[in-house]
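User: Can you fold this complex?
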Amino acid sequence: MSNVMPLLAAFERAGHRITSPRLAVANLIAARDGHFAAADLVADARRDRLAIGRATIFRALELLIELGAVERLDLPTGEHAYVSCEPAHHHHVVCSSCGRTSEIDDAGLRAFVDEVARRTGYALESHRLELFGRCPACRSNGAA
Amino acid sequence: MSNVMPLLAAFERAGHRITSPRLAVANLIAARDGHFAAADLVADARRDRLAIGRATIFRALELLIELGAVERLDLPTGEHAYVSCEPAHHHHVVCSSCGRTSEIDDAGLRAFVDEVARRTGYALESHRLELFGRCPACRSNGAA
DNA sequence: TCGCTTGATGATACTGAGTCTCAACACGCG
DNA sequence: CGCGTGTTGAGACTCAGTATCATCAAGCGA
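Assistant: Here's the predicted assembly.
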């Protein structure tokens, strides 16, 4: 459960209208804990009897990704998932029990990337890093 | 262009038969430079007039992934791709021009992961890291 | 207020990756 | 030979994501 505001702000900042379908999608995303699939949003919309087309949900999602307010991640299983997040470069730590994510900033990664560049001779442009494990809450719960 | 042997060895080690379709798939993979999509293999097989079913290619690929002789990676675009590689924990540096990959071992990542675990309190189980950039060859070529 | 332009929407068809099903086949073994 | 298990290929299917297109709503100038 996060806040809708950053999502709406992202729309506005980029000069897109905040229409009622977009607001609805933003609400659905904000109401979600942890990562979710596009299909989840579609299901949520249907559950709530929202008259939002599938295409619209995908479009809103795509827009938010482009604006950096939502990020796409790849679970260890190879599935794609989405998370709403701050629009700054960072990485995610994903709880393999509850699916919640935490964001982490550099934490020394920069040095690691430089080291790899030095060793391989590549001019590194971007990277993708995702960490998976059990979050503190799930650990203390001992829950699945 | 890599070697077929490790792929065949992976099949044998796990007690799977090296049948002619599997051999063919291994050859197609070995003949590939850099990463490839499953569809590429299907196309290659067709081009070479090989009588191999689509399903068989996917099955062989799945098996090789399970055995660690092939890894699935996620390109920055969100597409899935495969690369053949050593069956040990490591990460890939992918050339964004030519698609070739290099493998890197720890290179200090371990310390980084520990640091993240310390900061977030997560019990980290696995991670996924991919780096993208231009390889030395492409850099000196100035080629696209 | 009318009417135009532009962005947004929703239904639907489509694509493409990957999976599932199932009947047929091939090997190893008694 | 005849059985059992592992493998195969064709094709149907699923599911995420995209493309098409006619409709609709908001903003704006005349």
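Strands of chain B lie at 70-74, 80-84, 91-95, 101-104, 123-134. The interface with chain A takes residues 72, 74, 76, 78, 80, 93, 95-96, 102, 104, 107-109, 111-113, 115-117, 119-136, 139 of chain B (CB under 8 Å).
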